[in-house]
Amino acid sequence: MRVTVRLFARLRDIAGAAELARDLAPGSTIGSVWRELAGEFPALADYERSISSAVNADYARMDHVLRDGDEVAFLPPVSGG
Amino acid sequence: MTIPLLAIGPEPLELGRVAAALDANAGSNAGSDGAVVTFLGLVRNHNVGRRVRYLEYEAYEPLALKAFERISAEIGERWPDARLALHHRIGRLDVGEASVAIAARSPHRGNAYAACRYAIERVKQIAPIWKREYFDGGDMWIEGATADPDDQRARAEAERIACA
Q1: Distance, CA of B147 to CA of A22 (rounded, Å)
Q2: N vs C: which end of chain A shows fewer Cβ within 10 Å?
């Protein structure tokens, strides 16, 4: 199955892309996508304990199981206002 | 044209417009409200010793709107007679420009003040919005709170500040 990964702010700068496509094994979670990305882009590992994540524009936890076509987003600590 | 209660986009913000969004949505409550409190957040020319030239805001827009809806619902639980309008700007903002405009309306001033303050505190906690600061000598992403809408301690802290 295939998901779209969206990265914001400094995470986007680290990966050099706002959007990535990833092929995943069935049963993959948000956490497994994150670990794969952190392997690819080691600077992401600094965010291990401070990121939030979302699926299809709703906040979701790292153990959330993904489905084909999902949009996964990783969000560094926010600074709106 | 109807002014939305909750919005995010590149258009310049106006306090009158965010307050007017509540007027238009007041319906049968229109005559019973006795207070509108507004807040306008501005881009400052200094931040922790740096001379700020301008900011660039970005957002995960659909989730930001849902976060605003959540904040509005939380206000409805905590201050049932208060109603919220909130507009956030994204893109490049120069010093002195407004990044966020908030209006809270209620029969009495106490709840309108509290709801307005609560809204800005919660935006800073849970809205997926980021600012990149361009200052004399460089630029950097500003990173504040880890966004977790279910963090009850953060929510309680925003309530405490709102009611201080």
Answers
A1: 24
A2: N
Q: Which residues contact B27 (CB under 8 A, 6 or more apart)?
A: none
Whole-model pTM: value is 0.96
Consecutive 10-residue averages of pLDDT for chain A (81 residues): 98 98 97 97 95 98 98 98 97
Instruction: Answer for the pair B22, B3: CB distance below 8 angstroms, yes or no.
Output: no
When CB atoms are compared, the residue of B63, B66, B142 closest to A79 is B142
Contact B66 A73 (CB under 8 A): no
Give dist(CA B161, CA B39) in Å, integer.
15
Angle between helices B61-78 and B109-126 (to 10 degrees): 150
> What pLDDT digit, counting tens, does each position of B107-137 carry?
999 999 999 999 999 999 999 999 999 999 9
Q: Return the residue of B nearest to A13 by Cα.
A: B141
Residues of B with CB below 8 A from A80's CB?
Answer: 57, 59, 64, 88, 99-100, 123-124, 127-131
Phi, psi of B31 (to 5 degrees): -80, -15
Please say whether the dihedral angle defined by the alpha carbons of residues B77, B8, B146 and B116, taken in this order, is positive or negative: negative
Element (H, E) at A6: strand A2-7
* pLDDT band, residue B28 (cuts 50/70/90): low
- Could you give the residue ranges of the DSSP H alpha helices within B92-135? 109-126
Cβ-in-10-Å burial (0-12, 13-18, 19+) of B92 comes to middle
Which residues in chain A are contacts of B66 at CB distance < 8 A? 57-58
